[in-house]
Each structure stands twice: as structure tokens, then as C-alpha cells.
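Quiz preparation item.
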């Protein structure tokens, strides 16, 4: 009848009509992230605003790639004749391997696709590299930066260059269109925190004699 009360909405419809504040905030953050990442992807293609700088950005991309760092560290470990240097290089190798495993695990768990404006012409990729979150280059850059600053004696200008390199690697990921801004920011934070794990698990002749016996 006309005087009867309207039937209540199902609970799931009420939830859709009254989204949580957290849901709105996350959706807004995601939208801002995608918009900013697209605007900052000025080297994503040859026809982009800064397309002429794309070759330089790709050189920076290679400088932060895992394979050159792994091969270089392993070569240095084989050539080193100092026990102190071997200890540092072995721990750097451990840090790089831990970084690869952790980033691959997070990428496989989150499964965030790369930006739509990205050209899939990256240097040596594997299956999980089709995913974007977090940026492995940014994670590695922050990890290596902290490691180098703590375990190598460098003049102040060189220390500044190491920090700038880490920041430029992170920025280049967005400029090339490889990652969104949040991928890089989380990657830098993850790499910074990962160094603390490496320090806590530091390998030495006392804690890992079998490893050092190989060298």
C-alpha cells in the first residue's frame, strides 16, 4: 500500500552507496599517482616531450640493473686478495640476491601492471618484470647507496655522487614510463630498510665459515 515503508536496501548495496573514507582516499591516491606518473613520463617514447633524452635514461636504467651489479660483485669477489674486501663483497652479493628475491616476491603478490605508456623494451627482463610494484631499480639503488656509504671510504664529493645516482635512478624509472611514482617511492623505502636486514645478518668468517672457505 501507499502508506507502507519502503523495503530496506540489501546490505551490500548500502556498502556501495556509502563507501568508506579509506576506500575513497585510496582511490583518490591511485588516481593522483596515475595522473602524475603519466605527466612525468617525459621520456617514455621517442615522440615524448623529452624523447631525445631517452638514450641517456636507458643508460641510467642499465646502471641500476641487477645483472651488472651481480656480475661485477662476483668478479670482484673472485679477484680480491684481501680478506676484508672479500667480506664486504660477499655481503654485497648477499644483499643483491636478497633484493632480487624480495622484489620478485612482492611483484608476484601485488601484480600491479606497468603504466600503459611504457614501452616494453627494458634491458633483460624475467617473468615478474611485467609487474610494476615495487621498482626493483629503486630498491637496488637505495640498498647499494646505503651499503657503499657505510662500507667504503669515499671523499665527500663521491658520497654526494652516490646519493645523486640513487635518486636519479629512481626518477628515471618514472621518466621512462617504466613505473608509477608510488612504485619508486616504495622501492626506495624498501631498499633503505633492506640494508638494515643485511647489517643484522652480516656474514663474517665467524658466522659463516663455510662460505668464506670457498674463497
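Solution:
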Amino acid at each position: 500500500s501507499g502508506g507502507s515503508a519502503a523495503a530496506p536496501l540489501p546490505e551490500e548495496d548500502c556498502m556501495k552507496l556509502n563507501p568508506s573514507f579509506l576506500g575513497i582516499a585510496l582511490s583518490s591516491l591511485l588516481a593522483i599517482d596515475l595522473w602524475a606518473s603519466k605527466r612525468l613520463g617525459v621520456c617514455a617514447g621517442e615522440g615524448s616531450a623529452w624523447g631525445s633524452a631517452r638514450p641517456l635514461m636507458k643508460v641510467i636504467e642499465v646502471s641500476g640493473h641487477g645483472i651488472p651489479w651481480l656480475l661485477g660483485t662476483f668478479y670482484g669477489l673472485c679477484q680480491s686478495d684481501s680478506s676484508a674486501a672479500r667480506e664486504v663483497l660477499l655481503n654485497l652479493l648477499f644483499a643483491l640476491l636478497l633484493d632480487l628475491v624480495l622484489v620478485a616476491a612482492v611483484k608476484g603478490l601485488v601484480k600491479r601492471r606497468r603504466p600503459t605508456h611504457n614501452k616494453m623494451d627494458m634491458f633483460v627482463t624475467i617473468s615478474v618484470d611485467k609487474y610494476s610494484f615495487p621498482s626493483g631499480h629503486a630498491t637496488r639503488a637505495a640498498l647499494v647507496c646505503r651499503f657503499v656509504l657505510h662500507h667504503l671510504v669515499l671523499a665527500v664529493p663521491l658520497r654526494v655522487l652516490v646519493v645523486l645516482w640513487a635518486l636519479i635512478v629512481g626518477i628515471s624509472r618514472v621518466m621512462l614510463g617504466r613505473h608509477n611514482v608510488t612504485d619508486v617511492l616504495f622501492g626506495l623505502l624498501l631498499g633503505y630498510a633492506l640494508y638494515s636486514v643485511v647489517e643484522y645478518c652480516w656474514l663474517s668468517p665467524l658466522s659463516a665459515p663455510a662460505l668464506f672457505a670457498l674463497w
